[in-house]
Specification:
The protein has three helices and no strands. It is mostly helical. It has one domain. Helix 1 runs antiparallel to helix 2. Keywords: Membrane, Transmembrane, Transmembrane helix.
Length: 76
């Protein structure tokens, strides 16, 4: 529980430190920053809650497996 609170406090401090460096005219950059902060903080909280998060290599395997199988079938 304390680790989740720690993550949220660190995320809030980083938000306050970085947000003021993005002027209101940089709307796209503000949106990207907000999305990355939300995704990163959410993944970190899920990890501390004990959820099993997928490995990026698993996603690559799922995407390229049909291509690898097709290439192996064609090449013999």
């Amino acid at each position: 529980m304390w680790s989740i609170i720690g993550v949220l406090v660190v995320a809030a401090v980083l938000w306050m430190m970085e947000w003021r460096h993005l002027p209101p005219s940089m709307q796209k950059e503000r949106w990207v920053f907000a999305i990355f902060m939300l995704v990163g903080t959410s993944l970190n909280v899920m990890w501390y809650l004990g959820w099993t998060l997928p490995n990026p290599a698993d996603w690559l395997t799922a995407v390229y497996r049909p291509i690898i199988d097709w290439t192996a079938k064609v090449m013999g």
